[in-house]
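Reading a protein record of the kind used here takes only a little practice. Think of the row as the fold of the chain written in a discrete alphabet. With that in mind, consider the following protein and its fold in token form:
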Amino acid sequence: MAKAKMDKCEFLGSFQTLPGKEGEVIYTVASTSERHDTRCWGWYPKKEDAFAAVKMNAGDMHECSYTHVVIEEVPSGIIPMSKAIQWFRYKPNKVYSEGRWVRCKPPKFAECTINFSLG
């Protein structure tokens, strides 16, 4: 049995990771805010499905508390280094719970932070 090559990830310091297969990724959807923990709502094998879930606010990702949603591209493996591909902020409507998610830049509180969904 061949041993898997263990690579050291600079970002994680002394942690060792075991990368998955090249090109294997999922797209996770997580909501977060400056005052609340992060909640991962789920994942999709296709990026467009993750965007569709945010657009329709599947499962009420706002929950009257979360201010932002992030879609991350997450490669397979142990301690994967995700990449945020799109941020959204909640834009309330006249009836607050009937607002919608609009694209935005990453919020200040999320700077230098990755792996909102896994990790």
Summary: The beta strands are 7-8, 16-19, 25-33, 36-44, 68-75, 77-78, 83-91, 100-104.
